[in-house]
Amino acid sequence: MDPMLIMICLFMVVTVMFFVVLSFRRDGENQKITGLSPVSRQHLEIYQGQELPVWLMEKTKNKINNYLENGMVTRVEGMLRPGLDYVVVVRSLLELGTNQAFEILQKAFGKTHSKDPLEDLWYAIDITNALRQVNRDKILPEIVGYLCQRRELAIAPLFAAEIVSFDSFPELLKSPIPEERNLAVVVLSLAMDGLQSGISLEVFAEAKIGSIYELVWENRIQYNCSALVVLFQNGIRFLRRYHGMNEVLERELQNPEDFRWQIMRLDSLESSLKSYLSNAQPSLVHQLEKSSWAEHRDVLRALYSLKCAPPVSAWEWLADPGYPHKSFVWELFAFEKTNKGRALVTIYKSAFRFKNFSWIYSNPKAKKLEAIALAKCLRHHPGIEAENCLLELANSGDSLVVQEALTSLGWWEPVNRLEVLKTLHKMRKDTKLEISFAATAALARLGERKSLQSLARNLLSDDPLTVHQTIHTISTQGISLLWPELDQLADSANADVAIHAREALAHLSEDL
Q: Please, which residues have CB within 8 angstroms of residue 399's CB and are 6 or more apart in sequence?
């Protein structure tokens, strides 16, 4: 297997996944990515195919070899410190190929700490990739646990794709320890998320994911229902996107036959998976009502995956200042079939007893997530209360909150149209690209011809970054008026564009 194959993420990881919840921009003709640390930029470039300098690799290997020959193991271990040289040292130890080198790598896993959690995950990916290549799998349970504690980070699906590609990963799914089994299912779900967001489809065949799904299905009684729901839902979504893409796959995949074989294995389970999912909601609600708060997060995730409205108890949780998973509960109200806009805004504001949103800055980690989740659900509850709340959030000054509030405007005919349009036109001129895009998309949802024409032109751009960014915007912002344009791109000769357009169409369809 090509050692870099599993970790190659098409440039869509930079321009499309937006999975990195950070802003990617181009700086002049050099197209340098800003908004990320130097280490993260370095890794994104490496996993797009950029090679490490040969002279640097040779120099580092010689240095390491000299230390090891003189018994200076601690010196080598000290070389694995945060910074741009980290991946160079890891690759050098891998190329040395000695048991001592592999022991150093294994010992170093998870020990490097920087101020940027994204960097720490890149370091863990570096070591995991090296250990996988030499089949050092005894550390696999530790690696899985490490990732699951950081599953919210944007590059978690990249890490998950690396983990499921270990030859022994299926054995972890059969572990006698229930926690290890269930965490392995979570990692597999993350990898499936990544396959729909830019990670090379070669992973699906190389990791034999269709066969792994069969294994999980045969042993489904051994896993948590919440973990299975998310995994099975991801499997169904994957099938929707890649049926009918035979011609594209034939051109782009190294082993299209292996891919088709794995798809067939997953496809054979489709009706069984759908049956399981159709009966899962009562079990999840029962589990949610009976379990401790600490266990709620995964169950709430599963209910969101099924697009289920929250149980009645959710109102009590939102009113309780100590409840730790409010952002997940807010998002579930997107699937509430009756309009609860007024009640949602009331309980939200009463919980903080403020008339405005200046409190956002006092506790950015928890309260900001709630603000973002509230904005997401309010798009499904039209009315003056929801609209006013979204306008307040759009003027809060926090870029992530502002972006989500703009993303939730324009889904219904505004009550105060002049005020909404005034806010959107102002934000369209914002210097932050993500905010400008969100405002433009909201105007497009409201049918503004200028915004629709601008997005349609972007789809025909010669710049791949612009095309992918626009597809992503149309998909996530629900601009169904441009459905025909996306439909044409689904048959593009460019495989990356075709796959992304099909993903966008499937996303629009699911939202509808």
A: 432, 434, 435
User: What pLDDT is attached to residue 125?
Assistant: 95
| Plot region of 191 (φ>0 → left; ψ -120 to 50 → alpha; else → beta) | alpha
Amino acid making up residue 302: A
Is the per-residue pLDDT at 23 higher than 50?
no
Cα 486 to Cα 1: distance, rounded to the nearest angstrom? 35
Q: How far apart are CA 224 and CA 221, in angstroms?
A: 8
Q: What is the pLDDT of residue 449?
A: 81
Concatenate the DSSP letters of all residues of 42-101 into one string: HHHHHTTTPPPPHHHHHHHHHHHHHHHHTT-HHHHHHH--SSTTHHHHHHHHHHH--HHH
Amino acid occupying residue 160: A
The answer to whether the beta carbons of residues 318 and 326 sit under 8 Å apart is yes
199 forms beta bridges with 9
Distance between start and end Cα atoms, the chain: 40
pLDDT in tens, 192-204: 988 877 678 888 8
The whole-chain average pLDDT of the chain stands at: 84
Packed helices 156-164 and 178-195: angle between N→C axes, nearest 10 degrees: 110
Asked if 227 and 181 count as a contact pair (C-beta separation under 8 A), the reply is no
Residue 263 to residues 177, 218, 267: CA-CA distances in angstroms? 29, 17, 6
Model confidence band, residue 354 (pLDDT cutoffs 50, 70, 90): very low
49: left (phi over 0), alpha (psi -120 to 50) or beta: left
CA distance 148 to 327: 19
3-state helix, strand, coil in the chain (%, to 5): 65, 0, 30
The answer to whether 144 touches 189, Cβ cutoff 8 Å, is no
Residue pair 507/474 in contact (Cβ under 8 Å)? The answer is no
pLDDT of residue 487 exceeding 90: no
Give me the phi and psi of 431, to 5 degrees please: -75, -20
Q: How many residues does the chain have?
A: 512
Nearest C-alpha neighbor of 94 from the set 168, 7, 9: 7
